[in-house]
Specification:
single chain; alpha+beta; Nuclear Transport Factor 2, Chain: A; 6-stranded mixed sheet; 6 strands; about 40% strand; Nuclear transport factor 2 family protein; SnoaL-like
Length: about 140
C-alpha cells in the first residue's frame, strides 16, 4: 500500500507539531496530535505507558521545569501499512535549560481520523550508545 503525497506531508507535519506545542506550553492542544486512547510507551525509561491524552498532559505538567526547553524532530520516515495506518520512525533531540541535550527515537503508529491523522501509539526509546550498542566482533 502507498500513501498519497498529501498524506505523507500531513503525517510529517503532525510529528513536527508535537515539539512546537510542548515547547510553547500548549498542552491543551494535544488532541491535535493524539487519538483519545493513545498509548504513550515510556517503558524504556522505567515508566509505565501513559494511556490517553489526559495522562500525557498530566505527566508533562508534573515534569514542570525538568521538561526540555526545546524539542526537535528529525529523520522522519513514513511507511504505509496494509490496514490503512502508517508507521512513522523519527529522531528527537531535547535541549534542557542547562544546555545539555538528549536523543530519542520515536516509533509511532498514526491513524486517519475524522479530524486528520493522529498518533495512536508512540514508543519513546532513549539513544545512549553509539551504533545501537553494536561492536565489531573479531
Amino acid at each position: 500500500m502507498s500513501l498519497a503525497l498529501e498524506d505523507r506531508l500531513a503525517i510529517t507535519e503532525l510529528i513536527s507539531l508535537h515539539g512546537h506545542l510542548v515547547d510553547e506550553g500548549n498542552l491543551d492542544r494535544f488532541e491535535e496530535l493524539f487519538t483519545s486512547d493513545v498509548v504513550y510507551d515510556l517503558t524504556e525509561f522505567g515508566q509505565e505507558p501513559l494511556l490517553g491524552v489526559a495522562a500525557i498532559r498530566e505527566a508533562a505538567w508534573a515534569l514542570g521545569a525538568a521538561n526540555p526547553v526545546a524539542h526537535h524532530v528529525t529523520n522522519v520516515v513514513v511507511t504505509a501499512s496494509e490496514d490503512g495506518r502508517a508507521q512513522v520512525r523519527s529522531k528527537g533531540l531535547g535541549i534542557r535549560a542547562d544546555g545539555s541535550c538528549g536523543s530519542v527515537s520515536y516509533d509511532d503508529t498514526v491513524v486517519r481520523t475524522a479530524d486528520g491523522w493522529r498518533i495512536s501509539h508512540r514508543k519513546v526509546s532513549p539513544r545512549r550508545t553509539p551504533l545501537g550498542g553494536m561492536t565489531v566482533s573479531g
